[in-house]
Amino acid sequence: MLSALAIKNFAIIDDVQISFKDGFSVLTGETGAGKSIIIEAVNLLLGSRASADLVRAGCDNAELEAFFDIEEQSKTAKLLKNQDIDGSEGLIVRRVISSSGKSRVFINSRQSTLDLLKKVTRDLAGISSQHAHQGLLKEENHLEILDEFADTAHLKNEVKRLYQTIVPLKKKIRELTQSLDEKRKEQDFLEFQTNEISAADILPNEDEDLEKKRQTLLNASKIFEAVNRSIHEIHDREGSLIEKLSFLKNNMEKLGETEDTLGKTVQKLSGTIFDLQDIADELREFSFTIDLDPASLEMTDQRLDLISKLKRKYGPSLEDLFSAYEGMQNRLSQTTGTAEQIETLEKDVNEILKHISQKAEQLSILRKAGAKTLSRLAGKELDALEMGNAKFEVCFSHQIATNSDDISTPDQKKIGSDGMDNVRFLLSPNPGEALKPLVKIASGGELSRIVLALKAVLSKTRSLETLIFDEVDAGIGGATSEKVGLKLNQLSKKHQLICITHLAQIAKYAENQFRISKNVIDGRTFTTIVPLEQGQARIEEIARMIGGTDITGATLSHAKELLEQASS
């Protein structure tokens, strides 16, 4: 519970300290005395954002400090222990707000972060301010209220985790698909180009080899004629070189029988004749290979023309052509790789989609069960607050998925980060009236009671130790305010309750009352807070709440009577 609160240099507050007790406490005083400023200070100590405008004029810093008694086994105590912060003697939260706008947070004298402050104080106190009325009118807040009641935070966080996983995957698929579409537009052309090159089946240096072959074919008849003439001169004609050399050799052989030198010459002639015979044979074999067919030259020209065309398109050299072909194949394989990547991602998305659909369905079932209980319990609370004929319901709706980017259940219910449900609170204040959204129905007084009723219901499911109400009496009076006072008193049996009120019918039910007043001293405004003990001081404050500035004996008697009624 909140045991002590210290505020210094904050708005119109110079330096005040308040010690709170368990049970029901009220803060009373004239409008503008600073009651809501105290609630704002508590809000900041629970982790809300600070503003330099809150620093008292002429001061460098505003200082806020609260002391909470915490149970040893509470969530807060365990969280402090996990952060290596000693919470055995309680929790001291301190914030220093500078006039420059900077804010520092201290938890048990250790400088900390705003995020940790929010976590530490989450289960310690909850504030229902005047803004809660407007917040209740905003349908985007209704789902959060229902989830708090139905205790679906864990399942909701699981849906959110899956949603945050699947959304980037779908975005990646969309980007890859767009890229693949663009690649596929050129894929046909790439395939045509690669097929054109592949079909040509060109060999390295084939253009050079073909050019040589072409020159040979162009000179084939001249070469054939020259080769055959050489064969004829060497071997075939009468009086050929071999025939003449053979004649010389035979003559030399006859003479060489007596002359050794001539014998050697004969041997050389024999060798020359054999060489010429080999030459003639080689030329004859070569002549058989000479291609004299005009079609061969035509085919060679056609092949050279094909290669030349391909070199002009992809070259200018064969090396460049082969390099271009390799690049095209790589681009085609990238297209295939992108398609495979999309297929893999789609499998992942489908698997996650199964899980998120199941979780969203489970979450919706729990919410609907919680909504029935919330409607029933809220109805009971409203009955106790003079709204017994009112009917309160939680209405569910779903969006239908309209495009492929939407995440949805198998029956096309769209899933968002909070699940598949759209929730809004409906109210029928009087019998015979149709249920309508709160924004179209509820008056200020009705909203005050609905806020209180929901707080009463939610307090049974959430372990908040301290409940703070800022002017929950807005728009009510008479017997209704009496009922509200009783309801607050009942809540104080389970929670520490701190309430700002202007109504004596509510204040009389408090065990503890503080009077807040505003004074101007030497041109500066000062707010003071005085605890009122049971007795004359409290009777006078209740009388002021009833009669204003002119307090008569009858008013004092009425005030005393109200306090006696409440205590009995």
From TrEMBL:
Q: Which residues form the RecF/RecN/SMC N-terminal domain?
A: 2-518
Q: Which InterPro entries match?
A: DNA_recomb/repair_RecN, P-loop_NTPase, RecF/RecN/SMC_N
Keyword vocabulary terms for this entry? ATP-binding, Coiled coil, DNA damage, DNA repair, Nucleotide-binding
What CDD domains has UniProt attached to this entry?
ABC_RecN
Coiled-coil spans are 166-193
Q: Give the record's GO biological process terms.
A: DNA recombination; DNA repair; SOS response
Q: What is any Pfam family matched here?
A: SMC_N
**Which GO cellular component does the record give, naming just one?**
bacterial nucleoid
For this chain, one GO molecular function annotation is: ATP binding
Q: Which domain of life is it from?
A: Bacteria
Does this UniProt record's set of keywords contain Lipid biosynthesis?
Answer: no
Stored PANTHER family: DNA REPAIR PROTEIN RECN (PTHR11059)
Q: Which family does it belong to?
A: Belongs to the RecN family.
- Biological function: May be involved in recombinational repair of damaged DNA.
Its protein name is DNA repair protein RecN
**What species is this protein from?**
Desulfobacula phenolica
